[in-house]
Amino acid sequence: MNKTWEEIIELLEFVETKSIKKDLKKQEFILIGEIKGRDVLLKISNKKNTYRIKQFEKEKYVDKIIEKHNKNLSLPIINKTDFLDSGNNKNFVWMARKYYPGTSLASFNRDKVLFGYDIIRQKYIFKKGKIIDDIIKCLNAIYSLETDFRKLGVKHNDFKRRYQSDVEEYDIKAIEKELGLKLDKQIEFYNKVKKEYFAKENIKASVGDLSPANIIIKDDKKLILSDFELFCFDNYTIDIAYLYIFLWRYKSWQKALIEKTITNDQDRKFFRASIIRELMFLYRWPFASLKDKKDFDHKKFNQNHIWTKYLIAAGESFDAIMKVK
Q1: How far apart are the C-alpha atoms of 85 and 89, rounded to whole Å?
Q2: How many C-beta atoms surround the C-beta of residue 54 within 10 A?
Q3: Residue of 103, 80, 97 whose CA lies nearest to 212
Q4: ∠ CA 86-87-92 to the nearest 5 degrees?
Q5: 83: number of Cβ within 10 Å
Q6: Is the pLDDT of residue 1 over 50?
């Protein structure tokens, strides 16, 4: 029985044209290439990485849910990358998705991990209006997905939220020490709105990882969403807040996004809660966002980074977040 990742490449007759990720230590690979003349994105992971295996399985299932949704002509189409096939050998699992010629809205700097998603490609800088409109159109289509777990035939735990419902689940003292601030206001506000925030009518399907690097603009200029490994059902502002923090270099993009999605007091209240919840998650392990921590003053970096300013402002008001520079 074949047992290496290279044997999967050989078995599939995969011809690599570009590597997105080759982590030999973790045995994780994301590759672009061809299988029998068809453009594909191939993911391979060692079976020991149980987290990644679960994400593979979720992505396959989400694809089935969206395919079923897209067959209903009365509902808006969700533009996504199509799942093609999957398999495994003794030590590895793999999955292939259709690859669409084009580029992501932002490139990914793997050396900066979370901070590597935030540079919009130069060719898209002056296309803000159309791109933001297309992103919102895609989000509205996602929001139209069924949210009744019984009708979908899935278990709630299979699509649990990416972020904890209770922010106290994180090491608050460690985060406060790292960032040099107290989070009492943020926690108090979040707990005040939490019940309404998670009310059934405010829960929608969510991409879960709406970073600029997962927004693909095809060569035909159509926009599609890629990577549903973190798909979940959550408050309707969670994807908007996530994209907002990753657009921190581009205030005009943030402004356009907020003006078209956060339009009333409830939206503003929930957006604040999402900012708090997401950033406390991202800071749950101090300086976890930085790959190379040697000879680096991570505390100074995190304390001065605009994400920390967003977190501070979220404890004050929605307007305070909008005024952060």
Answers
A1: 14
A2: 12
A3: 103
A4: 120
A5: 19
A6: no
Question: Mean pLDDT throughout 263-275?
Answer: 98
Segments in the chain forming alpha helices (H):
5-12, 50-70, 128-143, 149-152, 172-179, 184-197, 238-246, 251-261, 265-282, 298-304, 306-314, 318-322
Cβ-based neighbours of 137, under 8 Å, separated by 6 or more: 76
Q: Are 21 and 30 in contact (CB under 8 A)?
A: yes
Instruction: Work out the end-to-end distance of the chain between its first and last CA atoms, rounded to an integer number of angstroms.
Output: 57
Q: What is the CA radius of gyration of the chain?
A: 20
Residues with Cβ within 8 Å of residue 71, at least 6 apart in sequence: none
- How far is it, in rounded angstroms, from Cα 141 to Cα 124? 23
Give the tokens for residue 134: 């297309």
Banded pLDDT at 2 (limits 50, 70, 90): very low
Whether 241 and 280 have beta carbons less than 8 Å apart is answered as no
What Cα–Cα distance (Å) separates residue 289 from each residue in 22, 131, 208, 258?
Answer: 19, 27, 17, 25
Please give the DSSP secondary-structure letter assigned to residue 44. Answer: E
CB 237 within 8 A of CB 139: no
Helices 128-143 and 251-261 sit at what angle, rounded to 10 degrees? 40
Taking the whole predicted model, whether its pTM rises above 0.85 is answered as yes
Residues ≥6 apart with Cβ < 8 Å to 180: 299, 303
Average pLDDT over residues 156-183: 87
For residue 219, count CB atoms less than 10 angstroms from its CB and return exposed for 0-12, middle for 13-18, buried for 19 or more.
exposed
Tokens of 285: 């392990």
- DSSP reduced 3-state for 80: strand
